[in-house]
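Appendix B, record 7
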Amino acid sequence: MIQPQNLIKGLKKKFFFLSSVGVISIALISFYTLNLHMTTVKRQSLLQTTYLKISEQLRLVQKASLLGEMFNDEVERKNLEIEKEFKNLLKELRHKKKVFNKWLENSDANQLEEIKTLLANKGYANKMSHFLTDGQKLVDSKKDSKGSLILHDNIKALSKTSIEGIGRALYSVIGHLQKEQKNSLSKLNQMGLFLILLGVAQAVVVWLLIFRPLYLTVIEQHERLTEAILKAESASRSKTEFLANISHEIRTPMTAILGYADLLERDDIKDIEKKDAVSVIDKNAHHLMGLIDEILDISKIESGRFDFDPQTVDLTQTLNEVYSLINVKAYEKGVELIFESEGEFPEKIWTDSKRLKQILFNLIGNAIKFTDEGFVRLIVSYRREKNLIYFQIDDTGTGIDPKKRSRLFKPFEQADSSVARKNGGTGLGLVLSKGLARGLGGDVRILRSELGKGTTVEAFIEAGNLKNTQMAKSFSTNVNESSPTSIDQSLQGVKILVVDDAKENSRLFDLYLSKAGAKVRVANDGDTAIAMAKKCDFNVVLLDLQMPKKDGFQVIKEMRKIPFERPIAALTAHAMKEEKFKTKAAGFDAHITKPVSPEELVRNVYELNRV
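Structure tokens (predicted):
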């Protein structure tokens, strides 16, 4: 009979042996599994990095190709900003290519050998070089007697290279990478299942405390990364569609402007046709300025640099002005425009009048745009407990698909691109209105919308300090426009120096001012302007800010040292508020923003001359 001590001792030895075998087995299996897992994760990381680098090159190729097509427009070809951006894209693409090739050389050959082989088989290096060469040829195209043909051929070559050449090669590689990533993810899932079974069979506690959390963390991080990439690609596609839409919105009025400008050059055109042509050009030019202002406003709101200028605002007068301007659009479409009030509201509020009008113009204009018959109604109300002014816009228009409402307040997106093509617009109106309303202490939201029945949009803003403010129960949309103060705008005998490196602009300003009786001299650079200011006693100087060699800030500094003590005005396309502060700090007596109407230019010069 075996003694208990010997049995216990034997059991201990057996337990120790079996435990040792089990631990060693688990350790070996775990080591093998962990090594396989690390190898798979490393490969996944390399594939992901390769995917991102190639996707970035593809994005740059597509963007460069899109900009390259804009070179086909005579006017836009002169736009140095497009050419500069195109050159920067080519430069960045060369850099990305160089970094990518160097990264491939330094990467683990066994992990990415098939990718290197695939890139070689698809002719990646040669096709990318061809694309960059075609892009450089497009930049180097000259505007001589054969320039247009050469430019057209270069654009065609660039487009073909991007679509049939490097674009097709990169898409092929991306497809392979996606397939490999899917296989890699499948291996990760299989290893995870194996680890679960191993943990259940050998060490449930170890599995629960170590391997399962590690597995879940890896999977979660991978899914988050994949989701982030999908969102980035979706955003990139949205911006590409937005650029295409903006290109259409710009080209449409530009076609009218160029066409009617060409018409004005004909000798046989009648006076009435001239007036119509000028009216069309003016209308489309203002439309272009509106597009630019919308894009700039969105940019400032997104960057948090948007400034508001609150002041006491007569709410009734503001609503009258909005009605008188927007009713023209409603009348043209045969839509009834109704302005109503609900309960008492303050006659005067503390807010930014310009931005409030912008919100109402956007929302009411949007309602009219998508309403073919029926009415558009604005209801104004005041909620005393919240001190908020509410503007409810109802329409009997097309309505909004519930599935597409979430896209309405996203920049660069529209709910339906087909509707956008029919009705026009950048898709920024609602986004801009929401940003402006939030800046004024409120918001914009959709209360209801039914397809084919209409939409109700609500905007609200803070009313501000209402101390000593009268309350009104109703308002009238009969606008009594006050006649502008009559002033003598004659510039007879006034000596003016116009400084602008753009000769077309300086000739135009010369024409405006000369018709008002002024004696105008023109300088197209800073040094000439300074020399002329030393010799002639000008009454007023109009000075552009952005010029080669010496800019406007350097010129005014040297003029004041002469000394030149008469008024100097900045005549510039920079319209942002911070630019106005900058010119004031530099010693300018006024800030005149281009484009400027003849009446406004003459009035500004008249007032400066009186100083």
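Remarks on this record: Residues 311-472 form a domain with the Heat Shock Protein 90 fold (CATH 3.30.565.10). The chain has four domains: 4-202, 250-303, 311-472, 495-610.
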